[in-house]
Amino acid sequence: NYAAENIQKNSNVILEASLSYDKAIQFADNALKKDKIFLEKVLKNNPESIKHIDNQFIGNHDFLLNLMIGFGQDKHKYSIIFNYLPKEIREDKEFTLKALKINDHVASWIDEKFKNDKEIVLEMLKRRETKFYSPYATFKSDREVVLEAVKVDLYGLDYCDDKFKSDKEIVLAS
Q1: Quick one: average pLDDT of 50-65?
Q2: What is the pTM of this model?
Q3: What is the mean pLDDT of residues 98-124?
Q4: Which of 6, 63, 72, 140 gets the most CB atoms within 10 Å of its CB?
Q5: In the predicted model, is pLDDT for residue 89 greater than 90?
Q6: What is the pLDDT of residue 168?
């Protein structure tokens, strides 16, 4: 560390620095780096700081999910945390579903590997995200997915299998 010891131990200085510098946490002393409450504050200031925290916190799914809770414009800000997580966490279906339910903006960061996963696609559609529903969608013949898609996508009926174009419930939902 290049920061003086009194700076490294000063949580207010590190918090202030984290507003504009995602690596500020690296200059904190070890006690602060292991302080869960302090880390939550740093990560709420600058979600990109997630790249620089101790692995013990990266492995704590409850800690990570709690960080992604946001309201209004903060939802997008906190969803960025998902993007900076290690690939093995972002590709964990259970974690991804929980994150999506907590913060619908996480949908922007969901890995393409889930585009053929019905449960993920349905959850995304319920959150008005059509990223994985298109004319080439795997689920254009799946009634449950089509019903959700037509509720959120103006062109959802155009993308679905022709058999649904005469389905009263689907047509009315579109």
Answers
A1: 89
A2: 0.81
A3: 90
A4: 140
A5: yes
A6: 92
DSSP string of the chain?
A: --S-HHHHT-HHHHHHHHTT-GGGGGGS-HHHHT-HHHHHHHHHH-GGGGGGS-HHHHT-HHHHHHHT---TTHHHHHHHHHHTS-HHHHT-HHHHHHHHHH-GGGGGG--GGGTT-HHHHHHHHHTT--TT-STT-TTTT-HHHHHHHHHH-TTHHHHS-GGGGG-HHHHHH-
- Measured CA to CA, the distance from residue 157 to residue 169 in angstroms comes to 12
How many C-beta neighbours within 10 Å does residue 78 have? 21
Which residue type does 133 have? Y
Residue type, 50: I
Q: Which of the four pLDDT bands, split at 50, 70 and 90, describes residue 71?
A: low
Amino acid occupying residue 96: T
Task: Characterise 59 by phi-psi region: left (phi > 0), alpha (psi -120 to 50), beta (else).
Answer: alpha
CB atoms inside a 10 Å sphere around CB 158:
12
Six-digit token pair at 163?
Answer: 């058999």
End-to-end CA distance of the chain: 58
- Average of per-residue pLDDT across 158-172: 89
